[in-house]
Amino acid sequence: MKNLRNFCIIAHIDHGKSTLADRLIEFTNTVQKRDMMNQLLDDMDLERERGITIKSHAIQMQYPKDGEVYTFNLIDTPGHVDFSYEVSRSIAACEGALLIVDASQGIEAQTISNLYLAINHDLEIIPVLNKIDLPGAMPEEVSDQIIDLIGCKKEDIIHASGKEGIGIQDILDAVVERIPAPTGNPEEPLQALIFDSTFNSYRGIEVIFRVYNGEIRKGDKVKFMNTGKEYFADEIGTLGLEQVPKSIIKSGDVGYLISGIKEAKEVKVGDTITHVANPCQSAILGFEEVKPMVFAGIYPVETSEFEDLRDAMEKLQLNDASLVWEPETSMALGFGFRCGFLGMLHMEIVQERLEREFDMTVITTVPSVKFKVLTTSHEELWVSAPSDLPEPNLINVIEEPYIKAQIITKSEYTGVIMSLCMDKRGILINQIYLTTDRVELTFDMPLSEVVFDFFDRLKTISRGYASLDYEYKGYQPGNMVKLDIMLNGEKVDALSAIVHRDKAYDWGKRLCEKLRELLPRQQFEIAIQAAIGQKIIARETVKALRKDVLAKCYGGDISRKRKLLEKQKKGKKRMRQVGNVEIPQEAFMAVLKLD
């Protein structure tokens, strides 16, 4: 065990984690030259296309130093705030972390929040200054920022460049020297933590775990403590680029387990594995529950595909433990699921993965957050879908979730960012100058305002310089109302939203205008209305398509023509009562793109 090192790489988005991981893998000859490619650990097409890491990826490397061979278990983690749950799970399986800071960008919001996650788990932090070869690099200034943040010495900071391969040996040596070997007792009963799982259509569910105490051998009968299920360890092994089967995995090491598990419900990330014959006393603690921030409905386009969608969601949940869902029904869309996501990017990625990996075309409803409703009869209700909100006369008060948002930006953008946050009902709590031209702004903001397009607009107005990190703060009363969209007097529950009263009129008007463009014209007139309770606040009309009934009536008396037109008008009136309006998929998506 003294030659084992478990560590992860943490950083803000785009500070070069995956590139640095590539260099470490290359330097230790873990992968043959011909198999090497950029973003080697990002095995999803989506990750490569967008250049972001969505999943944490573990890989084992061998590194010879001073006549001894060290085994490294490296976990590359995502940088985006929406995938911070992946980071927290990876940190739980490690003893150390490489904290990477871009020498041209400096410390950003996610750097700080990921660092605090690591410090809370007592991880040894190795600061790495990356991208020092860039013309815009500021090694001296950024080094000072790192020293202020961690309190390390200047010589502790390793200067590196993932692209040019500078400083890679220093990093590997620092891992050996500074990160402690795992502690654990090989003689005790088996105790291992599941920190990830994937679904393989040929071999069932593959569980990825870290052994804390004891050891696991091939063929052992093991038990998952939370679910109480028992399995035989048909195959165990370590994670190279390909899986490497082994006959034994000892304490301190990371490995995978295949035992032909078919049911997705039977594997829970954060569960403890132990032996059936000689179980350990207690499960491993210190694993936080996921707190979804954004809720949206996901529905199959064809109602008959509901069961397929359920299977797809279960398999996706294995691979993405931060996805939370439960079944729900909608008048307009039929059966589907109410899903909890960690943010809008997470929601977009889940939708994209359902389409790519499981071939499921889905409709997503308006995202909303979870509200706390106190009724006039002193009941407390939790509402995550607008359709669950009681009538206005039964509501005493609606409370909405608030977050504490930390924005780090260049000082020249302070004004525009403040006005954006004020516009989103934010309250400025604090303003600190980190250096002469970098400022940290702290706001209290309602989560429902941040959910939509806040992050995109923040990036746009600050030319990409502002970085955002937020933490959940609790509930506060708000003047919220339910905004209904009606087509020909029929409410479309999938387009309803819970919004602040001050913004309801503007929101309703823009939504009606957008729907007027998107709804295909019918043979009858369609009235699009936005309403709060019984009060209509906006209206647009989609004009009817008219058939040319006068074509066969050339010449002749005007009364003949009028008779035909009156007859057409009656038909249209009747049609409007029975005809239903087909809503295209773009209309449901339009709500997300209201600028």
TrEMBL record:
Pfam families hit by this protein: EFG_C, GTP_EFTU, GTP_EFTU_D2, LepA_C
Organism expressing this protein natively: Aquirufa rosea
Catalytic reactions of this protein: GTP + H2O = GDP + phosphate + H(+)
Species classification: Bacteria, Pseudomonadati, Bacteroidota, Cytophagia, Cytophagales
Gene transcribed to yield this protein: lepA
Subcellular localization: Cell membrane
Keywords: Cell membrane, Elongation factor, GTP-binding, Hydrolase, Membrane, Nucleotide-binding, Protein biosynthesis
EC number: 3.6.5.n1
Protein name: Elongation factor 4
Main location (coarse class): membrane
Membership in a protein family: Belongs to the TRAFAC class translation factor GTPase superfamily. Classic translation factor GTPase family. LepA subfamily.
Residues annotated for GTP binding in this entry: 14-19, 130-133
GO cellular component: plasma membrane
GO biological process: positive regulation of translation
Function of the protein: Required for accurate and efficient protein synthesis under certain stress conditions. May act as a fidelity factor of the translation reaction, by catalyzing a one-codon backward translocation of tRNAs on improperly translocated ribosomes. Back-translocation proceeds from a post-translocation (POST) complex to a pre-translocation (PRE) complex, thus giving elongation factor G a second chance to translocate the tRNAs correctly. Binds to ribosomes in a GTP-dependent manner.
EC top class, as a word: hydrolase
Sample GO molecular function, one term: GTPase activity
Membrane topology per record: Peripheral membrane protein
